[in-house]
Design brief:
six-stranded mixed sheet; 13 strands; binds fe (ii) ion; alpha/beta; Metallo-beta-lactamase, Chain A
């Protein structure tokens, strides 16, 4: 399986997806994607994942840019498949570590000793300039984590959506781009219905994302959505029913 996919390149700016995970992957598991944005001599890493892939990802990034040039590492939320290796990254780079302010106090439990490295995002998110463009932190709260952001890169027009858009695919079905949204939809449904909090949050996120020109949606698990498939995904996600809409089912499970 190709573990590296070039998502965007214009000679100045480049976005790369790595798909590193534990080799012996079970059926219907979640594949995990990590992302790198490079412009000139500066870089941003998105959702670098757990300690089990740290060395491999560090080396893979090093083939594109000196890891000491990583300016920011963004964590969409606090999960181990996103932030588990935050301590290793803090030592191996001099990057600022960007995440929701809700999670900063928990990072010492992943072994992070220097909390001054963290940039804590307020709930409404924010924007930081990145060379000739910017990256925008779009609120994605409760989708699924209570303190959660997607990252929009203004130059590539990619939304790095974290767990939003995650697909549960068997290893043989892993393809890195959705060719036809309708045939991909079944792989999205159970994950979103159980992990997303409520439809109101899905609608708020779609409303916010639509303020930007979007060419691609790149989730942390599963396949990429480009062009018309990104639009079809937004239309579908706007109507996703989450935990709140299925509350009764969650509590009415039979006790044998
Ligand atoms: Fe997660
Ligand atoms: Fe995840």
């Amino acid at each position: 399986m190709n573990k590296e996919t070039l998502l965007y390149e214009d000679g100045v700016h480049k976005c790369v997806m790595f798909s590193l995970e534990d080799e012996d992957q079970a059926e219907n598991s979640l594949s995990v994607n990590q992302f790198l944005i490079i412009q000139g001599d500066s870089a941003i890493v998105i959702d670098p994942g757990s300690g089990s892939i740290f060395s491999e990802l560090y080396e893979a990034i090093g083939r594109h840019i000196d890891p000491l040039k990583i300016k920011y590492i963004f964590f969409s939320h606090q999960d181990p498949d996103v932030a588990g290796a935050i301590a290793e990254w803090s030592v191996a780079t001099s990057a600022k570590l960007i995440m929701s302010g809700l999670w900063t106090r928990f990072m010492s439990h992943y072994g992070l000793t220097d909390s001054s490295r963290i940039i804590a995002l307020p709930d409404h998110g924010g924007r930081i300039p990145f060379k000739e463009g910017y990256v925008q932190f779009i609120p994605a709260h409760f989708l699924h984590s209570p303190g959660n952001f997607s990252l929009y890169d203004s130059r590539s027009k990619i939304v790095f959506s974290g767990d939003i858009g995650a697909a549960i695919l068997s290893p043989q079905n892993l393809n890195k781009q959705v060719d036809d949204f309708e045939s991909h939809r079944p792989f999205l449904e159970s994950f979103h219905q159980r992990y997303m909090a409520a439809n109101a949050f899905c609608r708020a996120w779609v409303r916010e994302v639509k303020r930007y020109e979007v060419d691609m949606i790149a989730p942390q698990h599963g396949s990429l959505f480009r062009g018309p498939d990104a639009a079809a995904f937004l239309e579908w996600f706007e109507n996703v029913e989450g935990g709140l809409e299925h509350l009764d089912e969650l509590y009415l499970a039979k006790i044998e």
